[in-house]
Amino acid sequence: MTRPRAGVDRLAWRLSSFYFFYYATVGAFMPYWSPYLAARGFSAAQMGVAYALMGGMRTFVPLAWGWYADHRGKRIGLIRAASLAALLSFLTIPFVPGVFWVGAVMVAYTLFWHALLPQFEVVALSHTAARGGDYARVRLWGSVGFIVTVLGLGLLLDYVGMLWLPWLVGLFWLGMALSSWLVPEPPPLRPAAAGAPASLLAALRQPGVLALLVVCFCSQLSFAPYYNFFTLFLDRHGYARSVAGLLWALAVIAEIVMFVYAGRLIARVGARRMMVLALAATALRWSLTALCVDAWPLLIVLQIGHALSFASYHAVAMHYVQRLFPGALQGRGQAIYNAAAYGIGGSVGSLSAGYLWQAQSPETVYLAAGLVAAIGWWVAYRRLPAADA
């Protein structure tokens, strides 16, 4: 009786290792890339354009990779090839001169980077569903990887300087590429239940799917100022970079705790109620961040709110996507979710935040983010269906 359990545990650790290194690269990239670009001569508006172009790639690239993976299969083979190509592209960053070429390389490596996560989500969800695992507990190791790099790099970059950042990110990217070889191909996706949409177009015509995509778009559009400019915002208010790293890390600790309990909370509270709560918490978080950034005790509380505004949102979004895009639609469903939320939402949010930051003020950026999250809350409250089966 113990051998199957041991097999499940080994597989869970292999899945977790990919999430660990993937989000370690995000943790090395997200808080510190804007200061790195500033060191390379980017203005806030130019950063917004660069991030928006990357988000635009995230809109279309996952759809192409999702279509290919759903028809061709061999998702892990795709993930392995894309992770190596992304690594090699990224490591050209230190060698290219000027704003234009750095931005061009950023766009180029996203062609492969954005292929990874949507397809690995399908792999992880398929494996955990087939073997009785808990997706949220596997995914939480991504948060652990994020927190390791956020804490470690904040101190290290204060010592060695920002221009070392691409090499440090590259180390974790190498770990991600290598860890993908530990994960086997997932079992075949379960066929859709009777009455489920038979095609992608039929799925997209469902009002519940459209409501979900609008909610996710609003959520991640509102997160763009946080992902791209939060460290710079703290810099403007006199916080040390190491303190910024600690605040990022605190948010991810809260995220990890939420992922431990997310599966049980969805079953008990309901997916729709959890999404409504997540968007309400997000709207409150960005509004108070704008108004109270100098009140560090409140800023700590707001960072702990990441448990609701991101972790519960993400767990519920995966719950919905798995149910609203059943069977052979999984890969394209994940791609469409990522395109709407992180691609379109992220690119619009990045572009708007960059220009609003320069034209108005950072505080205005976060107040606008709070308004967008409030719109997402209203759509979730009025239009999102239950998805608790």
In short:
The protein has 389 residues and is mainly alpha-helical. Helix content is 83%, strand content 0%.
Supply the key terms:
single chain, 389 residues, mainly alpha, Growth Hormone, Chain: A, 0% strand
CATH architectural grouping: Up-down Bundle
Overall domain count: 1
Unreliable stretches covering 5 or more consecutive residues: none
Q: What is the number of beta strands? A: 0
Helix content: over 70%
What is the rounded Rg? 20 Å
Q: Tell me about the biggest sheet?
A: none
The class by helix and strand makeup works out as: mainly alpha
Shape, principal axes of CA atoms: globular
Mean pLDDT: 83
User: For the record, what CATH class applies?
Assistant: Mainly Alpha
The SSE string, one letter per element, is HHHHHHHHHHHHHHH
Please give the count of helices.
15
Into which percentage range does the β-strand content fall? under 5%
For the record, what is the CATH homologous superfamily label?
A: MFS general substrate transporter like domains
CATH topology: Growth Hormone, Chain: A
How far apart are the first and last residues' alpha carbons, in Å? 29 Å
Describe the structure.
With 389 residues, this protein is mainly alpha-helical. 83% of the residues lie in helices and 0% in strands. The protein has helices spanning 2-29, 33-39, 44-72, 75-90, 98-131, 135-160, 165-179, 200-204, 207-236, 241-269, 271-292, 296-304, 306-324, 330-359, 362-383.
What order do the helices and strands come in, and which of them pair?
Elements: H1 2-29, H2 33-39, H3 44-72, H4 75-90, H5 98-131, H6 135-160, H7 165-179, H8 200-204, H9 207-236, H10 241-269, H11 271-292, H12 296-304, H13 306-324, H14 330-359, H15 362-383
Helix pairs in contact: 1-5, 1-6, 1-7, 3-5, 3-14, 4-5, 4-7, 5-14, 6-10, 9-13, 9-14, 9-15, 10-11, 10-12, 10-13, 11-12, 11-13, 11-15, 13-14, 14-15
